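Supplementary material to the annual report.
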Amino acid sequence: MSKYELVAGLETHIELATNTKIFCGCTTEFGGEANTHCCPVCIGLPGTLPKLNKRVVEYAIRAGLATNCKIAEISKMDRKNYCYPDLPKAYQISQFDKPLCYEGYVQLSNGRKIRLTRIHIEEDAGKLIHKNGDTYVDYNRGGVPLIEIVSEPDIRSVEEAREYVEKLQQIIRYVGVSDCKMQEGSMRCDVNISVRPQGSDTLGTRTEIKNMNSITFIAKAMEYEFERQVDLIESGGSVVQETLRYDDATNTTSSMRSKEDAHDYRYFREPDLVTISVSKEQVDAIAKTLPELPEAKLQRYVQELGIPQKDAELLTKYRRITEFFESASIGLQNPKTVANFILGSVFKTLETESAKEDFKILTTPAQLNELVKLIESGKIKNNLAKAALDKMLASGKGATDFIDESDMGGLDEAALTELCKQAISSNPAAVEDYKNGKEKALQSLLGYIMKNSRGKADAQAALAMLKDLAV
Amino acid sequence: MSKIKKLHQQLVAKQITCTELTSGYLKKIEEKNGELNAYITITGEQALATAAAVDKKIAAGEQIGLLEGIPMTLKDNISTNGIETTCASKILTGYKPIYDATVWELLKAQNAVLLGKTNMDEFAMGSSCETSYYGGAKNPVDTNYVAGGSSGGGASAVGGDIAVYALGSDTGGSIRQPAAFCGITGFKPTYGSVSRYGLVAYASSLDQIGPITSCVEDAAIVYDAISAYDSKDSTSRGNIGGSTQNAINNDIKGMKIGIANEYLQGVRDEVKTAVLQAADVYKSMGAQIVYFDMPSLKYALPVYYILACAEASSNLGRYDGIRYGYKTDSYNSIHEMMCKTRSEGFGAEVQRRILLGTYVLSAGYYDAYYKKAQNLRGSIAQAFNNAFGICDIMLAPTVPMTAFKNGEAVSDPVETYLTDICTVPINIAGLPAISIPCGKSTNGLPIGMQLIGNKFEESKLLNAAYKYEIESGVLLK
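Predicted assembly:
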């Protein structure tokens, strides 16, 4: 164990999934030809005025409630002044001293709570494009609504940071306010990081690593920066407060600007916008529309549905999966069967994390529900259902397209005995092997029975009978 | 009688066509604008096209609105789609907005005839119109004197009768002061009653659009037309006080006219005398005059210059040469391009206010200046609130003096700032106020008096102004 402890706090920017921008009616759609999702307001033409999108406030409150924040009854917008070509008004409309949400937390699996200082709303900037030695600006992203979630320096390891980001991502996606796609830039993190001797309770000098767009990079950058700071201190130096950028190609951090060069943003109240007041009733109304959150859902799946912890974690990771699972389980005695089908057959068709997250499959919850009902009513056996499901997933067709009437219902004792006898007489070599102690040889006999019963035979019963007959 | 009404009647009675009226004004502009320098841009073609449309309506026997076909102007900081809007600054040369300001949208819908865009102090920063990149507008009463500022062009145009009315903007007196200097009427409505959408911002929390007219009734007519609620401006409330035209002739017997003693201090004798004579006129009409102290008024000037400059430093950050307007010729980096563009594109007064505003918002100075000024702003607003507990309307000078000689104001900027003392408190408190003529100085220059109303009590304010105007015979002279 290191002599030093890592201390970190994260600032996470998340683009909200509203249809229109924060201060005008332009679309927030990702991409599009440069400067086509723009209007006089979002390119800051002289004389234009911002108009706060109510939906943005509502979405931010959803995020706040889902992360245990208090919601400010009175908040306001401020101007953060700085000059850069991607910022057409030379100020960003943000929130300074009266954020919309404050004092929340995210709980990690080790039981630790990462406290959230605040969540505020603000506008995104445009994007510079460097091409053929020239620089162009695309303002499509300018004015897209963001929330910035600021945590306290409560994170104590790279693992905790990783889990914190994943948890945030999961929660925000659950409440439907963002897709949190780090690769598309709709979620980005700044990490404030310092080190201190184990057992110390004073904070060391921190550095800030800016604008990372993958959890892997966050982890690598933190590992690198932790080592760098420890080495500095161990070699008698001291950490300098500065802003760093992380270079993933070299896996190193380098200085962007020192504390002395820090911007003076000259914050002041945005005079073009009025006070944001949110009543308790409005907050309650929003709270009522929140879905069951991941943590509560996980507990319920484990405790009430009897789904093993690991399976429940996989099921609850993405909201779309839980929605599918819950809808497919309606009216069933044992939702576990549905869970197993999802984690087995369905997951096999969804290879990547983003495919699991999108959960775009051809089979509807109702179709899976119908299939499992056939099992529960004893009409078909599990293995037949599994085979049918594979075909359903590939085609989008229903269970009855692959299972006809003659498949329904089990085999009676006589029919099973008959089939077992046929199996033995048709596979003398396998019988011989079995008699010579090769337990495995029975599998090929069982395969014969399954094939010839079109999956209707009960495997356990068939095996028992084979053993009786073969000896 | 109202000039707008008179012209309206002539149009309706077919004594004159709108095309004749408009051509007449365009001709007068041609004759006089060289000397007055009231217009930056003249939009003759568009004016005549609108006039022809109005004539067609009249010929077809259709009814026309009061403002329909009346030739007017807009201050050059009010955005007009496709028509250059320069704010009298080099940095906005060639800038043609791609949208209309709400006020212009409203007036255009009524077939107002736009003669052109009028001169102003650069970005509305100044009290003489002389910080304009295009040179100052001259006073039509005597062109050795300035028209005042910042809406000097509009006042010069209306005073010189090369426009029937003008829209100006008032951040610290920019409508009222030039109206006082030019001997006409300038009305700054309650903050929030006229949409600011499309008004190029100087100080957003103080800016307000209003009419410059030749009489109070015209101010009422124009105000009623432009004071609509606008969803594009979050601070817009609209005309919640109701039509002012219907109220201007109400009896003012028993009305309490308040005079704050501070308002009579440091004012030139002939101005003070004229204002006190106006008080006597009110008394003769059955109004009561009440005197009181408003000690917080002494903070108004520093509060104004701190807040206005702070907001301006932020509002003017966007002029960087990247998207529109002036851009420097040679540069080696984007940083140098922005710096040179701004150094070359902004005039001295604008640069002075940006620097001042940047300073007062800086870390370490914010509390001492900006925050303190915000607190005092609250005290000043409260003082007015208390004053309107004991009176209906306040009476004050508009400016402590008469018009500056050409060149006088720009030679000593701080001395010039001090002359805004009577007008800035109104913007700080967000109140409506009107300047109307109340006499002349010994050298024949107009003296203006200011009437101040409580928030959204435009009707009562214009009522008091109209009654004085009639009673004092200003209209008859």
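Residues 292-407 of chain A form one domain.
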